TrEMBL record:
Pfam families referenced in this protein's UniProt entry, alphabetically: WD40 (PF00400)
Organism of origin: Stentor coeruleus
Entries under PROSITE patterns matching the protein: WD_REPEATS_2, WD_REPEATS_REGION
Name the UniProt record assigns to this protein: Uncharacterized protein
Keywords assigned: Repeat, WD repeat
Domain of life: Eukaryota
Extent of the WD repeats: 163-198
InterPro entries: DCAF7-like, WD40/YVTN_repeat-like_dom_sf, WD40_repeat_dom_sf, WD40_rpt
Length: 329
């Protein structure tokens, strides 16, 4: 079964086959690479010794195949391939520190380890997330439970800026289309916007009225004005227009349980959400505001979905409790 409209009882529309890859440990962190049909997957074991894998879909056998794997210290909270403009086969992971990996002929190996607390022992919390600047791929930002955000120059393997960003744990970070602008989401219930050229001040662009943690923030890939915000244990996603921060412009609903993950389409205003209700839902965020009817697409998984990603090749990957699922749209 694949994506379908909710009222399509017979699932009669175009069916895209779902390919499943089982793993021997609980998976969590997931990313597409810049090669069609290739993925990165990380484990979530409650121990120091964890794993990352480089996987590839075979069109000949219609199976997902393991190409390479490596040990990883602590579960990676995020794994992400470098932007295409970097023109290097590298990716990053976050856990206790930031690690950069290289991938040559499908084989992954550790390139370097970057410790954001090396220069400042006052802050020493593990990393919750990170993001790569698409405009300037030498710039990468990390977020930490010690309330800080750290901006890196990965060419120099050095810290560019480190700031005390929030009053509580920083759960996520995301760069704008402008490499100087980034936002962060925190357990202090806010999303804040920073400018690397003037870090003495920041703008609080969203505060959760329900006073629960903001866990994820994600910038639309084709329009720098739209931001998706996910609050802890929420069954909906908030859409914010940063030109008018007074009120959210839309609230994306449809789940009956908490949402675990969200991602924008690579070249539209559609957003994909996945949650504890075993559903993956694709909705247009703009059409309802323009008076147009939206026709959401729904995929019903066999178990709760922990993470979802949408590739530049219009592929969707989903992480379940013991497997990875892959769909070509």
């Amino acid at each position: 079964m694949s994506f379908h409209e909710p009222n399509d009882m017979y699932r009669s529309s175009n069916q895209n086959e779902v390919f499943t890859h089982k793993v021997n440990w609980p998976p969590y962190a997931f990313s597409f690479t810049n090669i069609q049909g290739s993925f990165l997957l990380g484990s979530m074991l409650e121990q120091a010794n964890n794993y990352i894998q480089y996987l590839s879909f075979s069109n000949e056998t219609n199976t997902i195949q393991l190409k390479s794997s490596a040990n990883h210290i602590y579960p990676p909270t995020k794994i992400m391939w470098s932007p295409p403009s970097l023109q290097e086969q590298i990716f990053a992971t976050s856990s206790d520190i930031l690690r950069l990996w290289k991938c040559e002929d499908g084989q992954i190996s550790l390139r370097t380890q970057l410790n954001p607390h090396h220069e400042n022992k006052e802050y020493n919390g593990p990393l919750t997330s990170f993001d790569w600047s698409l405009r300037d791929p030498t710039t990468l930002g990390t977020s930490s439970i010690d309330k800080t955000c750290t901006i890196w120059d990965i060419n120099k393997e050095a810290i560019k800026k480190q700031i005390l960003a929030h009053n509580s744990e920083v759960n996520d970070i995301a760069f704008s289309h402008d490499s100087n602008i980034f936002v962060s989401a925190s357990t202090d219930c806010s999303v804040r916007k920073f400018d690397l050229r003037s870090l003495e001040q920041c703008s609080i662009i969203y505060e959760n009225p329900r006073q629960s943690a903001v866990v994820r923030v994600c910038w639309n890939k084709c329009d720098p004005n739209y931001l998706a915000i996910l609050n802890m244990d929420s069954s909906s996603v908030i859409i914010l227009d940063i030109r008018n921060q007074l009120y959210p412009i839309n609230e994306i609903k449809g789940h009956t349980g908490g949402i675990n993950s969200m991602c924008w389409a690579p070249n539209s205003y559609s957003i994909c959400t996945a949650g504890d209700d075993c559903q993956v839902i694709i909705k247009d965020t703009i059409k309802p505001m323009q008076g147009q009817k939206d026709h959401p697409l729904v995929y019903n998984a066999s178990e709760k979905v922990l993470a979802v990603a949408w590739s530049n090749f219009d592929e969707i990957g989903m992480v379940l409790t013991d497997s990875l699922q892959y769909i070509k749209l």
